[in-house]
Design goal:
Largest sheet: 9 strands, mixed
Number of helices: 12
Structural class: alpha/beta
Shape: globular
Radius of gyration: 22 Å
Bound molecules: guanosine-5'-diphosphate, 6-O-phosphoryl inosine monophosphate, magnesium ion
Helix content: 25-40%
Distance between the termini: 8 Å
């Protein structure tokens, strides 16, 4: 029997999705990206060699795997071309195995200008976006004025539509934001040139997925960002502009709800967040001044917590079961993949947040109002650390007892099994307890 598996991040992104997608694609024939864009940074390490993917699905390093970019993804031609050429320079025949839906909204240079202008205007309350034009591109889609990949097939009508949309955005850039307007002719010339690379990859991705389902092939749906960054269910307005939860795999690719067989939630053994927004279990530490929380420093330094897309320092803190439990429900998670356990190896003791204290009361579900979220104080349980290396351990029984206890505690609090355990960045540094594509 074949299976369709969704992989999603359960926290604020960077849980290790790329590594896990690459790993379990050994048993899949195609990988589908269904939301987000090149705001994602998915890191794959194979025998010490690191590859960071932003837009191209994380199955690309397996030569028998087809990679599909479905219509839920906002696509920057510049970013895709750059990524393709990097992969091809290292000997990966990426363009041959990549197909793109004509219904993907295009991220154009004015979206990036708008993203940056808005962030600058927000000042102190900036979201801390990746500056890749994600929000403005999704806005154009919903406003029904956006250009899509399929528009590249008719450059004459593309040029007309571009004229209208640029008139609109240039007006707001120069008159509202006091930013520089973009030159229509150069935007058109660049897009027309880039279209030559993109057009040959255009394909009815939804139909391809349905054909794969009909011929009983395993498909992996690769989420980007994390569930707490979901546009509807995340810590609004400190969120991204897509549905990062598992429902996004359905709407963003054109399969039906019952086509999905299981949902693997990637959980980092602690929590990180890049950009602004509430983070109750944060242990603030600033790398530039080397000031702040000592444990926050350990997590950030040992975990190499710097953004794979922007290079920004990631904020770090303890595992937060309040956010995670909401996440498991939002996604109908069927199994957990716990990553970066090894980052905790040196710690004396480890905390898990099991509730928030807000206005003198304990709550176990995340507040909807972002100000309440920011005011929530974590309530912790504490467990002893193991103070031994777990890097690359290949059997559960070989894990130190305290590490086994930490894992079992997470399973107990989640009421879900841990199917995969990752104890190092490399593809091999993983313990698969239950392969998602197995029966
Ligand atoms: P993604 O966005 O969810 O794909 O995650 P990122 O690639 O942005 O961030 C995860 C980081 O942790 C990358 O640098 C990975 O190479 C690294 N990583 C993944 N799993 C592990 C692990 O189990 N242990 C350690 N130490 N690093 C890991
Ligand atoms: P992966 O797939 C972590 C965050 C940004 C910002 C907010 C909005 O690697 O896990 P956007 O540019 O999307 O409008 O920014 O979302 N963000 C991520 N944080 N990992 C990501 O992707 C992210 N993609 C966006 O930092 O707070
Ligand atoms: Mg990332």
């Amino acid at each position: 029997m074949s299976k369709n598996v969704v992989i999603i991040g359960t926290q604020w992104g960077d849980e290790g999705k790329g590594k896990v997608v690459d790993l379990i694609t050994d048993k899949a024939s195609s990988v589908v990206r269904f939301q987000g864009g090149h705001n994602a940074g998915h890191t794959l390490v194979i025998a010490g060699k690191k590859t960071v993917l932003h837009l191209i699905p994380s199955g690309i390093l397996r030569s028998n795997v087809e990679c599909l970019i479905a219509h839920g993804v906002v696509l920057s031609m510049s970013a895709l071309i750059e990524e393709l050429s990097e992969l091809e320079a290292s000997g990966v025949d990426a363009a041959k195995r990549l197909k793109i839906s004509p219904a993907c909204p295009l991220i154009m240079p004015y979206h990036i200008a708008l993203d940056n202008a808005r962030e600058a205007k927000r000042g102190k309350s900036a979201i801390g976006t990746t500056g890749k034009g994600i929000g403005p591109a999704y806005e154009d889609k919903v406003a029904r004025r956006g250009l899509r990949v399929g528009d590249l097939l008719d450059l004459k009508s593309f040029a007309e539509k571009l004229g209208e949309v640029m008139e609109y955005h240039n007006f707001s850039l120069s008159n509202y934001y006091g930013a520089e307007a973009l030159d229509y002719n150069s935007v058109l010339a660049q897009a027309s040139e880039q279209a030559k690379t993109i057009v040959p990859m255009i394909s009815d991705v939804t139909e391809q997925i349905h054909q794969h389902i009909a011929s009983k092939q395993n498909i992996l749906f690769e989420g980007a960002q994390g569930s707490l960054l979901d546009i509807d269910q995340g810590t609004y307005p400190f969120v991204t502009s897509s549905n990062t939860t598992s429902g996004g795999a359905v709407t963003g690719s054109g399969v039906g709800v019952t086509d999905i067989d299981c949902v693997i939630g990637i959980v980092k053994a602690y929590t990180t967040r890049v950009g602004g927004g509430p983070f109750p279990t944060e242990l603030p530490y600033d790398v530039a001044s080397d000031k702040g929380d000592a444990i926050g420093k350990v997590l950030g330094t040992i975990g190499c917590e710097f953004g794979a897309t922007t290079g920004r320092q990631r904020r770090c803190g303890w595992l937060d079961m309040v956010g995670l439990k909401r996440s498991f429900n939002l996604n109908a998670v069927t199994g957990i993949c716990l990553t970066k356990l090894d980052v905790l190896d040196s710690l004396e003791s480890i905390k898990i947040c099991i509730a928030y204290e807000l206005n003198g009361k304990q709550i176990t579900t995340p507040p909807y109002d972002v100000r309440d979220y920011a005011a929530a104080n974590p309530v912790y349980i504490e467990m002893p650390g193991w103070k031994k290396s777990t890097i690359g351990i290949q059997s559960f029984d070989h894990l130190p007892q305290q590490a086994q206890d930490y894992i079992r505690k997470i399973e107990e609090l989640s009421n879900l099994p841990i199917d995969i355990l990752s104890t190092g960045p490399d593809r091999d540094e993983t313990l698969i307890l239950n392969h998602p594509f197995d029966e």
